[in-house]
Specification:
about 425 residues; alpha/beta; Rossmann fold; 8-stranded mixed β-sheet; 4-stranded parallel β-sheet; 21 strands
Length: about 425
């Protein structure tokens, strides 16, 4: 007997059960065989056949034949004794049982989870640099579109489904607060209108990367990750760092653990909180989180976080850009030996980078305070945790707690969109 069974769906099962020739001696000894003329069943001409067999192809790309219907081709010897028929039926039932047990249970089958969908927003910078003489140490122009940059890192497809958009393609030194405002609005609009977007990566030049990152840290209204990434070598240079940085940024943006941690800077496999990110030199490895800002790493096996920001940011921020058209002017001035202040200014506030003011400097800044200019002081390194002025001081200065002068300026710009009161501004600096 030959039994052929074909399965359903994506799998093909063929079971061939052949009952070999029963030894005539054993059959002759059976009482049921008496009076029955046995013949070699392989010579039997009588057959049963079900012609409902169908064969389908898996797809246009895969030519493997699969079956979507049951087909049973049975060759039964019409003249076999009852014992042989019963034995054949037993074998048939066992074959069916094996096949049914092998067919996947589609109702309980688990499909692999869909990769998260990310949006990559490009602003330009060295990561988009192209040299006139590729593969050299020569100069470059920032002109490579983000679609080409992403296409050159095919490994990205292992971690996320990505879309790209070209916001700008300029050196980051040309980035202005007006562009920060538009970029933040774009990010917030994407998260509001496209809930399927799990995170956003922003490619950026490194000169102003830390500033853009901190602005978004204070103005993006979502817990979904926003990751800022750049490069110190152009894409066509020797050993470019842009591709691995971009891949790491995508991995961080796609990681569920990145939610709720504010805007993140990813450079050289370091995950740095935007509040503390700083470019310390223009070479690979040149970004630092200083003493408290490195909160995780991108390892070969996955994204690992060890710390989380505790100051207010993103979804917990109070800053609303809805009615903001232009930001108040805020200047940064440095204090140094022999200085008597920074000269004339039309700024609404000044961040003074100082380790201590001289008498003439203090007189200069107090005169500005009397005219309504807000004065805040921070260390040039940004590492000082200053104590607020006494409430009894007639001209209190805003004390900055561990912020770079450039970051303190951004926070002051946003604070001035809400209030001109120095005590309320001090409250804002204490919380952010």
């Amino acid at each position: 007997m030959v039994l052929t069974m074909r399965g359903i769906g994506d799998c093909t099962f063929e079971v061939a059960v052949q009952v070999l020739e029963l030894q005539k001696l054993q059959m002759m000894q059976s009482p049921m065989a008496s009076g029955v003329g046995l013949t070699d069943h392989r010579q039997t001409k009588c057959k049963f056949h079900d012609s409902s067999s169908k064969v389908f192809r898996r797809s246009s790309a895969d030519k493997t034949k699969i079956d979507t219907g049951w087909a049973i081709n049975l060759k039964l010897d019409c003249l076999l004794p009852r014992m042989l028929k019963r034995l054949s039926i037993s074998v048939l039932l066992m074959g069916v049982s094996v096949i049914l047990g092998s067919i996947p249970n589609r109702a309980g089958a688990q499909t692999p989870p869909e990769l998260p969908r990310l949006l990559i927003i490009a602003t330009g910078g060295t990561i988009a640099g192209e040299q006139g003489e590729p593969g050299t140490l020569g100069g470059y122009d920032i002109r490579k579109p983000i679609s080409e940059i992403v296409a050159e890192v095919p490994e990205i497809r292992r971690y996320a489904q990505v879309e790209t958009t070209q916001f700008a393609n300029i050196p980051s030194a040309y980035i202005t607060p007006d562009q920060w405002l538009q970029l933040a609005r774009n990010v917030n609009s994407v998260f509001e209108k496209r809930p399927e977007i799990a995170g956003i990566v922003v490619t950026h030049g490194t000169d102003r990367l830390e500033e853009t990152a901190f602005f978004l840290h204070l103005t993006v209204k979502s817990e979904k990750p926003v990751v800022i990434v750049g490069a110190q070598r152009p894409a066509t240079g020797i050993s470019p760092d842009g591709p691995i940085n971009l891949l790491s940024a995508v991995r961080v943006a796609a990681a569920h653990g990145s939610r709720g941690k504010g805007v993140l800077v990813v450079m050289d496999d370091r995950i740095i909180s935007a509040r503390d990110a700083e470019k310390v030199y223009a070479r690979a490895g040149g970004f630092s989180g200083r003493e408290m800002g490195n909160i995780g790493i991108v390892a070969r096996h996955g994204v690992e976080f060890f710390y989380a920001p505790t100051r207010r940011h993103t979804s917990g921020s109070e800053f609303d850009l809805g009615d903001v058209m232009v930001f108040p002017r805020v200047d940064i001035q440095y204090s140094y030996a022999g200085s008597d202040g920074g000269g004339k200014t039309e700024a609404k506030a000044i961040i003074v980078a100082t380790t201590g003011l001289s008498g003439p400097e203090r007189n200069y800044y107090e005169a500005l305070q009397r005219k309504g200019v807000i004065i805040a002081t921070t260390f040039p390194s940004g590492d000082q945790v200053a104590s607020p002025s006494s409430a009894r001081e007639a001209l209190p200065m805003v004390a900055v707690e561990r912020l770079l002068p450039t970051h303190a300026r951004i926070l002051m710009m946003l604070a001035l969109t809400k209030t001109q009161d120095v005590h309320e501004i001090q409250r804002i600096f204490d919380q952010y």
